[in-house]
Amino acid sequence: MDRIHITGGAPLNGVIPISGAKNAALPLMIASLMTGETLELINVPRLADITALLRILGNHGVDQMVVGKRPGQTSETGQTIRLTASNIIDTTAPYDLVSTMRASFWVIAPLLARFGEAKVSLPGGCAIGTRPVDLLIMALQQLGAETEIDGGYVIAKTKKGLRGGQVSFPKVTVGGTHVALMAAALAYGTSVIENAAREPEVVDLADCLNKMGARIKGAGTPRIEIEGVARLNGARHEVLPDRIETGTYAMAVAMTGGDVVLKDTRADLLHSALDVLATTGTEITQVDGGIRVRRNGGGIAAVDVTTDPFPGFPTDLQAQFMALMTLAKGQSHIRETIFENRFMHVQELARLGAKIRLDGDMAIVEGVERLRGAPVMATDLRASVSLVIAGLAAEGETQINRVYHLDRGFEGLEAKLGRCGAQIERVRA
Ligand code: EPZ
């Protein structure tokens, strides 16, 4: 298995281009199943999760074309993918494909809405908690689906098509909102989603569906109204910038010091995280087409954070923020309210010399003077990258094992950091 070697201590200076958002691209690609016409997606990141989903869509019979580079494009330009689901040959998503990535479970909604049946394996994904799908199934039932679980598969059927209904989520769920949106868009009649997730990725999906002919209002608020339509058409849509990648590199700069422009991204996608970073003493300014992040001298102030659904502080940046707080002056309290098991990075950060104590859903981080490089291993995507940024700030060599987690979510990580002065390289197994 590949490893990443980092020699820490160098500040980051330069420009980092931000890729399209993985967590927007995945549901957008799944939305291609909702029409027989072509959906063209621009700015799709080159990531293992995208490749895995292409395999799953291919298994259903979706034709795929990855458009080649055009003059003026660089390796950073996201890829354009054309997906055409005109000949669906199979409405089953099998265990061996779905078990690698939780988001692939979401294919259940378009398959059911368009073909009246779907059989989808219960999902896998990062080891960050139990991550059930009960609310996703509830949403489909509210829209008229009959469901059963048999042999590890969710089987969903509808006799006369889905019909509009009221979906009230007892808890904010991003996947549940994506599923409800896609199902309701092709249901007969009007649907309302209450306590909907407000994440930018939900808005991006709704925008794309509206381009495809859906009638969705209120995405980005807790109440979304959908007037179902009989069919959708093809469309062309650009994936929004990755706010988690943006926040990750911002935290890396806050931790190592330096001056970096994060380009092709938007501050409004991650205000809460940028506000917290500013409170730690990092200078954040909006520049044309991006965000400038600076910390030159001066210590890192300890700040408490609690993860929350958007617009709150994202759980997907919790591990990275904890890495930053390991070098803060004083004590910081980090509360994780979304996933119950998302502290797997704590023991690995401790290997670098961090002082962190866990108390239920709270991590209490005691800032230390310095971290020292060590071999570490990560168990999920965001935990892995928290070790990368800690390694960049640590003295000496850090070796990160199980790099495949990083390849699921960070496009060109070593190249992007390397060009800003980081000493980072991948050692191929
Ligand atoms: C999405 O996961 C993201 N994944 C996650 O990013 C992200 O951490 C999460 O939203 C929260 O922001 C993608 O977009 C592909 P949820 P999702 O449904 O949709 C509970 C990453 O690193 N819940 O919003 O699966 C659940 O257990 C990944 O890129 C139920 O109880 O998350 C959790 O506690 C990791 N029943 C909470 O809701 C359900 O049926 C929020 O989960 C569904 C969820």
Automatic annotation (TrEMBL):
This is UDP-N-acetylglucosamine 1-carboxyvinyltransferase. Phosphoenolpyruvate binds at residues 22-23. UDP-N-acetyl-alpha-D-glucosamine binds at residues 102, 131-135, 316, 338. Residues 7-417 form the Enolpyruvate transferase domain. Keywords: Cell cycle, Cell division, Cell shape, Cell wall biogenesis/degradation, Cytoplasm, Peptidoglycan synthesis, Pyruvate, Transferase. The gene is murA. It is found in: Cytoplasm. Cell wall formation. Adds enolpyruvyl to UDP-N-acetylglucosamine.
